[in-house]
Structure formats: C-alpha cells, structure tokens
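// run 5 | inverse folding | seed 20
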C-alpha cells in the first residue's frame, strides 16, 4: 500500500497520479486527508495530556501528607487526566484503523513512463517477435483441434466440476507436464532462479500482502472453517501470493538480495464478472497451471529487474518458437498493485488474434509495505542503516494451459495433427507429433 506520510505530504501529486487510473480515487484520498488531520489532533491532545500528567505526578510526589485532602485531590486529578488521555489514544487507534482500511483499498501509483489510457485499447506495442505461421488451410481453434485428437475433454470435466474446467488425456496431459518442467528447467539453469514448492492454501494475511484482498475477494475460492475445524483458508489464485510472502516479517540483509524464486502451482480463480467471456476451451478457467517467477530486490534495482524478468519470460516463448508481442499496459488497464506492467501476448491462429499469456509487473514497495518485506542496507559509517522496504516483482513464465493452447494452434498441421516443438520432445518421451492415436 501507499505510505501515509507520503500521501499526506504529496496529496495533490498523488491525486493526479491515481487520477490516471480513473477519477474514482479522488474521494478516498480526500477522506484519508480528513482522517489524517483527526489523527494529528488526537496525537497532539494525547501528548499535551501526557505532559500535564507528568507535571501533576511530580507535584503530587512533593505532597508530604499522603493521607490529606490535598494528596487525594491531586490523585483524582491524575486519574482524570489519565482517563482523558486514554480516550484520545483510543480515538487515535480508531482513526488509524480507518486510514489503514482506506489505504488498503487504494491502488499503486503508475510509473511516470506508463502511458495514459482507460483500457486495453490504449496499451502500447513494445516489440513483436517472430511471424505468424503460414497455413494453407483454415486453422482450428484449440477446442476443436484438441477434441478431435482426443486429448482435451470438456464434456467429462463439465460433469465432474461444471464449466471452466478441462480433462487432458494422453499426449495432452503429457504436454502440460512437459511444458511446466521445461519452463522450470530454463528459469533455474539459465536465469538463476531458485525453485520453491509452497502450499496451495493460504491465510488471508498473505492475500492482503499481495493486494488480492480486500478488493478482489470475489475472485477467490475460500475454504471456510466450522466449529469442529477452526480454519479459514483460501486457494491461491497464483503462486505470487505464497512466494511473495515467504519473507514477510523478516529483516533481510542487503547481501541476501536479490531473491529470485520460481514456482509451479495450480491456480484457482472464481472468475467473477467473467460470465459469457471465453467460455469455450482453456483460455479462462477456474483451475489452471502456471509457472511463476518472483523477485525481491533493492529499490534502485527494480527497473532493471523488471526488464530482466520480462525477458526471462520471453525466452520461453522464443525457445518454443511461438509468435508473440510485448505490450506496455496503460494506467487504466494495469493491475491494482502494479506500478508498471508488461503483458506478453501470443498469437492464436484459431482465433486470429493475440491473447495474453504472461503479465510481468513491478510493484515497487507497494506489496512490501503490506507484507512487511524489509532489508537492512549495508552498514554506512559507524552506525547501522535503517531498514528499507524491498521492491517486489513477478510474472507468469508462463501460464502453462495457455502455452499448451498456443502450441496446439501454432503447430497444427493440415491433416489435424500437431507437431511438438523440438525443445519439448525430450520431455515427451521423444514424441514428435500428436495424432488421434496418441
């Protein structure tokens, strides 16, 4: 979240900055300003009473007759001052809670080089890699292609779980696994990430830390506790949540940075508000697999780390030979916690359009403030430097299901078979082509 002191001291510039995301954020800022004034007044009143209480206590100590009327009156005065001070302290605590709730609901400021715009129509193409495969036939989308090959099954998944799920058979299941293993290997061996395995169920505090709560509660699947089982946990919407929070409430050393992690997990999303969108096939599902990369870095390194992390994700697409483009998102299309985001969009011949396959974001210290992610800079002079918040970054590298979709559509052949990219064949028991028999 944003720093309260920074917001109050730079209210006008913050209002302009958040206004780039939309006009709706002006009202919360005005409310925060008013609450901050009440907080200052409560603090000043409490400090004034504390001084009066100290003076009164010192005066009472000088009274010789501890049983006389003068001492009794002084003691009652002290009690009254103490009670009054506690009232201001309670008022301060209540106001701070209100401010915290408001700050949790306010998004991150866009970086200066993020383009203006309200929606995806204003995103900017940064680069395009490769070319769309030439096909002398009408390409099928992955739904029809995978169903005909017998590797994608949406009918049985519907009977098992309802819409927005899929069953993968044979070569389809193998390709999903192969893609995930390939992505992990590249990020560990070539890009220097440490692989980590985390829980798929997390406390709400982890979701507050990454900014999923409170704003996006309707997108989450919650496992509610009962009288017999006292737990309230959420299924993770992405590995970003547990991995980013791994060092919460710790104080890292500067020498430990950067932290670079990669994790393969299933992801669970309610997709609230997505009724009627991408109901066909595997583009938008309640459960899907993803390889996620996360970095914790020094503030001065975050811009370079963002470029490197995005490039790491791009190498997966290039090794697979998949035509894609990089988009710089405009202020109005960025995620809640992000200050700058690149989306990677892969070409889908069956849809004749680019679709998002990765989102790589720099969050600055926005998540770090929420999750208490700090480090102590190296000692300067004789004293220790004060702790600072790290900057957090993450990206899909890649969404496995959408990568499978892209492979099926870009590598499809006129006879309905699908070639397997050469880099994946060692992970697919040497299989070169998916046919209806595989």
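// decoded
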């Amino acid at each position: 979240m944003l720093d309260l002191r920074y917001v109050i001291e730079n209210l006008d510039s913050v209002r302009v900055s958040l206004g780039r995301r939309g006009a709706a954020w002006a009202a919360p800022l005005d409310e925060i300003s008013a609450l901050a004034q009440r907080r200052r007044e409560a603090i000043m009143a409490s400090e004034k009473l504390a001084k009066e209480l100290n003076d009164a206590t010192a005066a009472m100590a000088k009274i010789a007759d501890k049983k006389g009327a003068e001492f009794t009156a002084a003691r009652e005065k002290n009690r009254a001052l103490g009670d009054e001070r506690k009232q201001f302290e309670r008022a301060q605590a209540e106001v701070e809670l209100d401010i915290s709730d408001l700050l949790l609901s306010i998004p991150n400021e866009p970086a200066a080089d993020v383009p203006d715009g309200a929606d995806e129509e204003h995103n900017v193409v940064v680069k395009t890699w490769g070319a769309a495969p030439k096909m002398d036939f009408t390409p099928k989308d992955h739904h029809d292609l995978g169903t005909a090959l017998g590797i994608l099954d949406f009918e049985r998944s519907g009977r098992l779980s309802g819409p927005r799920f899929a069953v993968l058979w044979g070569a389809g299941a193998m390709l999903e696994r192969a893609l995930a293993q390939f992505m992990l290997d590249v990020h560990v061996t070539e890009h220097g990430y440490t692989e980590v395995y985390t829980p798929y169920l997390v406390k709400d505090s982890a979701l507050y830390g990454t900014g999923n709560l409170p704003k996006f509660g309707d997108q989450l699947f919650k496992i509610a506790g009962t009288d017999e089982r006292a737990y309230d946990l959420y299924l993770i919407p992405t590995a970003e949540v547990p991995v980013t929070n791994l060092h919460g409430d710790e104080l890292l050393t500067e020498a430990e940075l950067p932290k670079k992690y990669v994790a393969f997990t299933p992801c669970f999303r309610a997709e609230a508000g997505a009724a009627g969108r991408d109901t066909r096939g595997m583009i938008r599902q309640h459960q899907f697999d993803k390889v996620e990369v996360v970095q914790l870095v020094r503030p001065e390194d975050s811009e370079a780390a963002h470029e490197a992390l995005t490039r790491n994700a791009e190498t997966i697409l290039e090794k697979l030979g998949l035509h894609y483009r990089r988009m710089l998102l405009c202020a109005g299309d960025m995620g809640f916690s992000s200050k700058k985001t690149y989306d990677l969009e892969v070409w889908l011949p069956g849809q004749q359009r680019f679709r998002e396959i990765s989102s790589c974001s720099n969050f600055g210290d926005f998540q770090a403030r929420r999750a208490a992610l700090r480090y102590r800079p190296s000692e300067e002079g004789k004293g220790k430097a004060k702790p600072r918040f790290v900057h957090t970054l993450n990206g899909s590298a890649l969404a496995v299901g959408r990568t499978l979709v892209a492979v099926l559509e870009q590598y499809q052949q006129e006879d309905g078979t699908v070639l397997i990219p050469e880099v994946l064949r060692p992970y697919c028991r040497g299989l070169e082509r998916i046919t209806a028999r595989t």
